[in-house]
Amino acid sequence: MAVRAAAQAVLLHGNEAIARGAWESGVRVATGYPGTPSTEIIEALASYQDIYVEWSSNEKVALEVAIGACLGGARAIACMKHVGVNVAADPLMTVAYMGVNAGLVLVTADDPGMHSSQNEQDNRWYGKFARLPVLEPSDSREAKEYTAAAFGVSEEFDTPVILRTTTRISHARSPVELGERVCPPDRPYRRDPLKNVMLPGHARMRKPLTENRLQYLTRFAETTPLNRLEWPKGHDEGRAPRGFVTGGVAYQYVREAFPEAPVFKLGLSYPLPANALRDFAGRVDTLYVVEELDPFWEAELKYQGIEAVGKQVFSKHGELTASLVRQGVAEWETERAGLSGAPLLQADEAGVDGSAPTAALPVRPPVLCPGCPHRAVFHVLRKLRLTVTGDIGCYTLGALPPLSAMDTCTCMGASIGGSIGMRRALPPEQAERVVAVIGDSTFVHSGITALIDAVYNRTPIVLLILDNETTAMTGHQGHPAAGWNARGEESPRVSLEALVSACGVTRLAVVDPGDMKALEGAVKSSLVPGDGPAVLIVRRPCVLLPRSRRAAAAVSFASELCTECGACFRIGCPALGRDGKRPQVQAELCIDCGQCAAVCPSGALGGPKEEERDPR
Amino acid sequence: MTTVNAASSARQAKVSCLDLDNFVIASVGGQGGLLATKVLAAVLHRGGMEVKTSEVHGMAQRGGSVISFVRRAPRVWSPVIDAGDADAILGLELLEAARALPYLRMGGVVVTSTQQITPVTVSTGQARYPADLTERLRASSGRTVLVPAGDIAAELGQPRVANVVCLGALSVFTDQPADIWEQVIAAAVPARTVALNLEAFRRGRAVSGM
Predict the structure, then answer these.
(1) What is the predicted pLDDT for the residue at A549?
(2) Nearest-CA residue of chain B relative to A587?
(3) How far is it, in rounded angstroms, from Cα B202 to Cα B189?
(4) CA of B210, closest CA in chain A: separation in Å?
(5) Which CATH class is domain A8-223?
């Protein structure tokens, strides 16, 4: 392979490359909901002025907007993390029957290793599940090229296309050559109820077409340059001791571990080119299939009767690396050598020699920021010994020590339904101690319907909406109740109070967690049994928002007053270091938010207790 | 076929310190480790070879350990550096630099800030912040540069430029001249902080004796 002219290229994240590819392909509508590792696609698209781009209220809405746009004649892209596709699965499974007008691409950014996710589901299955083609780039250059290719495939085969990345594609930079924007010819809207109104009678006609389409796509897979056989020069093209079927970032690991080995690189992850793969398998002694997470290709190969070594030696869990690929191959070949002759690769040749001592280094888990308003909430919830159903966001960190104030976290919006179920299952004295916590963005995303359920069914849940006025965890995106849009422009702001009231909630209060006493009082009031749900909006902007930024200041510490009681350490603030049993204020981190002072009984932190602190 | 950085060759100690290809950046979320990654990658990319980076966002950034990778070669495959394959570690915090040591090859370089940020596991008494980190770093590397980046940044009146101070100290171990570094930094930071960041870079460079 020739060394490409990298100097002519720019370094882009995979996500930036997808955005560039979509823009160059003439995309006109882009939607998404923030979620690591997908967020930067929409952020990058928002920097182009000639398209419509939105943060949608959730992934289902994002895909539905994109479907409408594609039917209306605009190339459209919907972007989300892997678990977001679950939310969007309802429209996805049926738009697969409908097909498209202009191209429609769904980007799913998966997270093997769960760097920032609650599971590591392998979304290639959605391709097989919905009978849709799945394209999978292995670096940023391909991320751009495949995005463009995805729109082409979508229009040629009248199908939505799934573009799948993983963290090591989305959040890896590599060189990309930039091109110009080329808008495809208009595809005027054409009313076509048989195709676009999925009544049972219409859907029955459409479903067999998805099967036909898959057959065409399988033929396409046999010849498309998205799939390619790389047979290193100078090697016998007829025969090799080992060959690899791989794709995505695993392709890079295979090429690094075995630069001399032939590789069948899948850019179209589904459907597979069975004939080409069978031919390849016939030319190698051992065929390895190297893929992160599930044995997706392996299962397809075996279904086709093609023998391959896969998950016997490569993990189904977490990320791969070049050395894990090497180890897996070594494991297989050592074991096989035990049966017949000498191994091709000894296990110890493949070993990792990370010999440096790291034993007993204290771990550094993620924590709520100094001054984070969520800290006060979880301090109070733990103090009151409540059962807390949690949700997805920065505040999920309230589950970790020392706050340790969350009992459950399943998925976006699950806190409220979970608290309804808990209320209905637990004995009354325990049921009354259940509290749901959900962020503002998450509440709009998928909490509202569960709150309506509680009102409708007279379940007296207690709900805390932790309103920090942004989607904080993913990097401070706007949302419908935050007041700004994907381009950072001011937008109409949904009032959470009005929304909650309109759902039929009569017990509603708003409190500032900057005043911890008031917060505790408000939580206690919400816990008083009453008719129907009680909602407490705990409102204070995220400490990292520009408008929250304050001059650097550190809380005062009077060592002579400290009784070494340790209360301050139980709020888990990263700005409080430790000097024996006493706190050591880390001035470069502290913003003097007053939380440690509020829990310090002796007045050592933040001055004497009698003095009423200005609640911030 | 270009074969680069196959583990067998990468694990052998290299002679020249100016020929570093594989960098691990270790920091605490919020310290600017990702900006340092971006700058280093852009500087190396100016040399004409292929460059890849890999990093992790989201949950890991909230004050947790953050590791990112920068690699360059005529052709880079994996965006991730394997254990024992890094030529250099850039640490923005002492404990995080030590945590990254398994990535370092024999004889590799460590450039690290001497800043110490207490993890919550330490402040809550579950663990102790190790006292022997600089010894561990020295014992495991071919060369260790300790950068008082926190003090220098404080002298400059902006604690947040400690990451650029560290980049300055690292810069002498790369084959790119200072003016390339300064061009890239000037383009990567907010316009009103360019002068401050360039001063931070120069102060850091002086720590490594340039």
Answers:
(1) 81
(2) B159
(3) 15
(4) 28
(5) alpha beta
- C-alpha–C-alpha distance, residues A495 and A359, integer Å: 51
Q: How far apart are CA B123 and CA A569, in angstroms?
A: 6
pLDDT tops 70 at residue A458 = yes
| Mean pLDDT, residues A27-49 | 97
* A115 with B126: Cβ contact below 8 A: no
A427-457 as b/e: b if 16+ CB within 10 A: eeeebbbbbbbbbbbbbbbbbbebbbbbbee
Question: Do the Cβ atoms of B95 and A361 come within 8 Å?
Answer: yes
Distance separating alpha carbons of residues A230 and A262, to the nearest angstrom: 6
Task: Give the three-state DSSP class for A518.
Answer: helix
* pLDDT per position as a tens digit, A147-197: 999 999 999 999 999 999 999 999 999 999 999 999 999 899 999 999 999
Report CB contact under 8 Å: A171, B55.
Answer: yes
Q: What is the pLDDT of residue B80?
A: 97
Segment A429-440 shows an average pLDDT of 97
Q: Could you tell me the pLDDT band of residue A551, with boundaries at 50, 70 and 90?
A: confident
Residues of chain A with Cβ-Cβ distance to B11 below 8 Å are 353
Name the pTM for this structure. 0.94
What b/e string do you get for B60-95 counting C-beta neighbours within 10 Å, with b at 16 or more?
bbbbbbbbbbbbbbebbbbbbbbbbbbbbbbbbbbb
B101:A171 CB<8 A = no
* CATH number of A373-548, picked from 3.40.50.720, 1.20.1560.10, 3.30.2350.10, 3.40.50.970: 3.40.50.970
Cis amide leading into A615 (omega within 30): no
Please, is A194 exposed, middle or buried when counting C-beta atoms within 10 Å of its C-beta (0-12, 13-18, 19+)? exposed
DSSP H or E segment with residue B50:
strand B50-54
Task: Kindly determine whether residue B45 and residue A11, on different chains, have CB atoms separated by under 8 Å.
Answer: yes
Yes or no: domain A228-340 corresponds to CATH 3.40.50.1100: no
Average pLDDT for residues A516-541, to the nearest whole number?
Answer: 96
A565, pLDDT greater than 60 = yes
To the nearest whole Å, the CA of A168 is away from the closest chain B CA by 6
CB contact under 8 A, A257 and B7: yes
Question: What digits encode the pLDDT tens for the residues B78-112?
Answer: 999 999 999 999 999 999 999 999 999 999 999 99
Which B positions 82-141 lie with beta carbon below 8 A of chain A? 82-84, 95-96, 98-99, 101-104, 117-130, 136, 139-140
The three-state secondary structure class of B16 is: coil
Provide, as residue numbers in chain B, all residues whose Cβ is less than 8 Å from the Cβ of A319: 80
The first and second tokens of residue A512, run together, are: 């500032």
What residue has token string 């398994």? B102
Q: Any idea where the domains of chain A sit in the sequence?
A: 8-223, 228-340, 373-548, 556-612
- A572 vs B120: CB contact, 8 Å cut-off? yes
- CATH topology match: A8-223 vs A556-612: no
- The answer regarding whether domain A556-612 maps to CATH 3.30.420.10 reads no
DSSP letter string, A136-188? --SSHHHHHHHHHHHHHHHHHHT--EEEEEEHHHHTEEEEE------PPPP--
Return the structure tokens found at B190. 């907010």
Residues A404-416 have pLDDT tens digits of 999 999 999 999 9
B142 close contact with A: CB closer than 8 A: no
Q: What is the mean pLDDT of chain A?
A: 93
Give CA–CA dist B92/B32, Å, rounded.
8
Q: Confidence class of residue A6 from pLDDT cuts 50, 70 and 90?
A: very low
What's the token pair of residue B1? Answer: 């076929």
Once rounded to an integer, what is the mean pLDDT over residues A108-122?
Answer: 97
A339-354: average pLDDT: 50
